[in-house]
């Protein structure tokens, strides 16, 4: 529970000369023990080049473990992926962190899997139905044209209600209207919705549906 996984099938077997030889890695102060066979699952990776003796200028600690100055928190999923070709993450582990390490170690199959998962998440967020927000704007007849012409930021005219004359100047009545406008708000990745300001004067409450 709380873990998710995707499997990768390795296309190229590790070199026979690397099988059965154990390697110690000191990643950010945490020691990992594995085999050269595991580290060479992805032959273009930093880890494969390291254990094959290429000149990568990596120091060793007092036990002979290769010193790697990276976050050990995300190295566990990296190593397990090389062991069995499956991405397994704790529910609280950020995929972006594992992706950062996969890119550092140059593990191509794992990079592709995580990027696909992140793209799928982004697509799911965009598919959330939008919320409809309605505003009731009260204005005088002489303000109506200006108010409608200045609507922006995605607001759409819905209905106009004549509420009659509330007062007059001299012999001219000033007719007032209620103008109903609407807008769609989409959820952002952090669960919040943004609503730009509107130029018209709002005298009634904001109604959420």
TrEMBL record:
GO terms for cellular component: Cul3-RING ubiquitin ligase complex; cytoplasm. SMART domains: BTB. Residues 21-122 form the BTB domain. It holds the Pfam family BTB_2. One of its GO terms (molecular function) is cullin family protein binding. One of its GO terms (biological process) is protein homooligomerization. This is KCD17 protein. It comes from Mesembrinibis cayennensis. The gene is Kctd17.
